[in-house]
Amino acid sequence: MSWIAIVVLAAGTYALRFAGPALRSRITVSDAVKRYLTLAAVALLAALIGTAALLDGTEFVGIARPAGVAVGAVLAWRKLPFVVVVVAAAVTAALLRLAGIQ
């Protein structure tokens, strides 16, 4: 059963990826729809980041991980190099956990 699901999902993914370039010249989208699609992508990304930063399954992860994500977000916003952002976020979470703050 799982192989069938994998093949169906792979075919659907390929079809969607093929449809974009194939239909680009045939379908016109208004500026309002383009704006809403951009906002929807941002909202989806924010929701994914929020749930990954705050939850492990259905359990709250504590303060250390969200603090690390916040430090990483601020450093990324300040346009520091990616390696610096990742290391600073990891170090922040690790130091808080070392201090006993979960």
Keywords:
single chain; 102 residues; mainly alpha; two-stranded antiparallel sheet; extended; membrane
Q: DSSP strand (E) fraction?
A: under 5%
Helix-residue proportion? over 70%
User: Taking Cα atoms only, what radius of gyration do you get, to the nearest Å?
Assistant: 20 Å
| General shape | extended
Number of continuous helical runs: 4
For the termini, the CA-CA separation is 40 Å
Largest sheet: 2 strands, antiparallel
Helices and strands, in order, run as HHEEHH
- Give the neighbour order of strands across the main sheet: 1-2
Structural class determined from secondary elements: mainly alpha
| Low-confidence regions | none
The count of β-strands is 2
The residue-averaged pLDDT reads 93
Layout of secondary structure:
Elements: H1 2-23, H2 31-54, E1 55-56, E2 59-60, H3 64-77, H4 82-98
Antiparallel strand pairs: 1-2
Helix pairs in contact: 3-4
Organism: Dactylosporangium aurantiacum
Keywords: Membrane, Transmembrane, Transmembrane helix
Pfam families: AzlD
Question: Would you write up a description of this structure?
Answer:
The protein has 102 residues and is mainly alpha-helical. The chain has helices at residues 2-23, 31-54, 64-77, 82-98, and strands at 55-56, 59-60. A two-stranded antiparallel sheet has the order 1-2. Helix 3 (64-77) packs antiparallel against helix 4 (82-98). The mean pLDDT is 93.
